[in-house]
Design brief:
The chain is mainly α. Helices cover 79% and strands 0% of the residues. It has 8 helices and no strands. α2 packs across α3 (36-48). The protein is globular, with a radius of gyration of 16 Å.
Length: 155
């Protein structure tokens, strides 16, 4: 399984925080450090590193705007990106803590919806479980549950 399409989509959308997150996923998943996907991801990471503070500001501004518009999953994805780039970032961590009850509710709703969908529309179920992964941090119970479901579907 390669995350290269994720990197390509992120580059097409033009939001550098998404590119950074996609790069990190490619590097985490690709074991062969010499393959083309990995080389491209490493180059993109080198390109972005000098601008990481700007990337953080862009992600925070986007998160605040998304939150103000009620787009919880978009806000959370951006806050999570900031925390991945700078784990000690206080504003992003505080926002995630404040949003945790809403994240829990939305993750449960998406997971349950996907669970019901899997019998009649596996593609949509997979999309919903992927949204759970994007919405929740790795230590969240629904993140782990969605990850298991996605792994099962690929085996």
């Amino acid at each position: 399984l390669t995350q290269y399409p994720v990197l390509r989509r992120a580059e097409e959308q033009g939001e550098r925080w998404q590119v950074w997150m996609a790069v990190q996923r490619v590097l985490a998943l690709e074991e062969d450090r010499g393959n083309a996907y990995n080389r491209r991801a490493l180059q993109r990471r080198r390109d972005l590193e000098p601008a990481l503070e700007e990337v953080i500001v862009e992600a925070l501004n986007g998160a605040r705007q998304a939150e103000a518009q009620g787009a919880l999953s978009h806000a959370v994805a951006r806050y999570l990106a900031v925390v991945e780039i700078r784990p000690e970032h206080a504003q992003a961590r505080q926002a995630l803590t404040r949003l945790r009850p809403s994240i829990d509710d939305e993750a449960k709703r998406l997971y349950d919806e996907a669970y019901v969908l899997q019998e009649r529309d596996l593609y949509r179920a997979l999309q919903q479980w992927q949204r759970v992964l994007e919405l929740t941090p790795a230590d969240h119970p629904y993140h782990r549950k969605a990850q298991v479901q996605l792994e099962r579907s690929h085996s």
